[in-house]
Amino acid sequence: MRMLINVPETVVADALRGVAAAHPELTVDVDNRVVVRRDAPVADKVGLVSGGGSGHEPLHGGFVGPGMLDAACPGEVFTSPVPDQMVRAAAAVDSGKGVLFIVKNYTGDVLNFTMAAELAEDEGIQVASVLVDDDVAVTDSTFTAGRRGTGATLFVEKIAGALAEEGAPLEKVEAIARRVNESSRSFGVALSACTTPAKGSPTFDLPAGELELGIGIHGEPGRERRAMMTSREIADFAVDAVLEDLRPDAPVLALVNGMGATPLLELYGFNAEVQRVLGERGVSVARTLVGNYVTSLDMAGCSVTLCQVDEELLRLWDAPVATPGLRWGR
Amino acid sequence: MRMLINVPETVVADALRGVAAAHPELTVDVDNRVVVRRDAPVADKVGLVSGGGSGHEPLHGGFVGPGMLDAACPGEVFTSPVPDQMVRAAAAVDSGKGVLFIVKNYTGDVLNFTMAAELAEDEGIQVASVLVDDDVAVTDSTFTAGRRGTGATLFVEKIAGALAEEGAPLEKVEAIARRVNESSRSFGVALSACTTPAKGSPTFDLPAGELELGIGIHGEPGRERRAMMTSREIADFAVDAVLEDLRPDAPVLALVNGMGATPLLELYGFNAEVQRVLGERGVSVARTLVGNYVTSLDMAGCSVTLCQVDEELLRLWDAPVATPGLRWGR
């Protein structure tokens, strides 16, 4: 086991202590596993809360800060957080203007966020929820009824976060989050399996010289296995899978995402191929983000997420953001 | 070979095309392998140029932009760039106020940057050079006479970049770069070897269940191999190795760096242990940066770099920076 850990049981708590030490701009409740922007609740602002299993960092804790999430609830590795975390997060960020839950479509997350929404409403917090289900690879998979939520989560959190930061009411923040999800599609590819601390060995068996097309971010099976392909061939396959479902008639945001262990050098090379295919298919790219954003521990591989944008979505994408994992601005 | 590439021969060129597509704020000369901030040369500003073998991304190309480097010259993977690249970079960024070469201490880089400085001077460009040699693990190693240059390069580029952005003259920018290097020390640990595209197999043999203490960023041998250690034990060893040499009597900047394939979840957990040791040793930490900044392709592992700071260095560290790999500001 080649892991930089103490024992599997404390991996998430250890990481949260490390986040607290590195990021004084965040309030980290290590015991209750909630990460909150320090100035929460922000007056007259809808609070954005997300969360999910750990192992996908910087998602979600690394996206807490001005212009994006108000709070994140990390579960155990690849395991949904519990409703208590979500209710605490909602209470910590609610200014009285309501809270939006951003939920990736996995059975455990959906159940727990649904229960948390009811509990929070009981406490007088107005809650809306948006489900992210952008992964076109498969319908119904391990952990999922319907499509899985992957890279589009970053687009939803960033764009809805920007609108919330402007003071928009809950129904508008919810509506734009829904619109971003509906405008986004993803497809992922694994070049290696990932290893969870608890298991200590690869979560699935991927022989050397093969790759898995349509992989999930927990190593859930994809569409098919093939002999190793070139970056060019992978880009063709992944982008076409996305475009077949999205059929954009306006410019897109492109997220060329690493699964964790693929070097940035390779990811940028892959981006060149993604841009080539998009050009060949007549798709105009408004903005491109390349890096490890929605990861799967130490998995080698990549995913492509496209989000069709109009002027409003593009303006909100470009708005300032200041989080550990995503940061730009004036 | 689990790589996201076309063929080994085009890895660097492919990556540069991908950088160009993702970052319109940079000018990328793919043929001549020079990455330059688009607004270069910036009037009345010293130009900062660095470079080195590829495979350490985001170092150096990802650190080009306002507040940091003006240009970077990427070589082949783990291979020095050539003088022609450096001269082109110097010419592209020289406003007449001179250029600072920031050189990691590897034999090839030192030779080529020295030659480039002479050639640039012949073209009427005033050049100063600073050598980064912060790695306390070993003296004289593969590729190196003296200590290797590793994580401190980020501190040198950021702090000298901030001073240059303020309009300081070349001798002051050079002096502060030298001071940052002299105030910094690093120590790295490998949990796995890395694989270069050209070789296609691990650059060295590290049996499962062992780690290498004092590894170099090209997989050069370190101090010793041991049976796998916990995060806590690794932090004790690495931080003590740095402190033994640095002996800080003022606050430090801490870079808790991933070698590439170690998940952010583990790196943050490791950071918690690094902060614990520093606290136990009575060292005050002014700022902490956690992430994959000075990498070694797909190597699993980490390094710790500390830089002792005074008020001026801390102010320059905090100054705005806007590059693909490091970004904060007002």
Fold topology:
Two copies of one chain form a homodimer.
Chain A: H1 11-22, E1 26-29, E2 34-37, E3 47-54, E4 71-77, H2 83-93, E5 99-104, H3 107-122, E6 127-132, H4 152-165, H5 170-182, E7 184-190, E8 210-213, E9 224-227, H6 231-246, E10 252-258, H7 264-280, E11 285-291, E12 301-308, H8 311-318, E13 321-322, E14 327-328
Parallel strand pairs in A: 3-4, 3-5, 5-6, 10-11
Antiparallel strand pairs in A: 1-2, 2-4, 7-8, 7-12, 8-9, 10-12, 13-14
Helix pairs in contact in A: 2-3, 4-5, 4-8, 6-7
Order of H and E elements of chain A: HEEEEHEHEHHEEEHEHEEHEE
**CATH architecture of the largest domain in chain A, please?**
3-Layer(aba) Sandwich
Q: What is the count of DSSP helices of chain A, taking H or I runs of 4+ residues? A: 8
Morphology call of chain A: globular
CATH evolutionary superfamily of the largest domain in chain A: Dihydroxyacetone kinase, domain 1
In helices, the fraction of residues of chain A equals 25-40%
Low-pLDDT sequence parts of chain A: none
InterPro entries (chains A, B): DhaK_1, DhaK_dom, Dihydroxyacetone_Kinase
GO molecular function, one term (chains A, B): phosphoenolpyruvate-glycerone phosphotransferase activity
Protein name (chains A, B): Dihydroxyacetone kinase subunit DhaK
EC number (chains A, B): 2.7.1.121
Descriptive keywords:
homodimer, 330 residues, alpha/beta, Rossmann fold, Hypothetical Protein Tm841, Chain: A,domain 3, 2 domains, 6-stranded mixed beta sheet, 8 helices, 14 strands
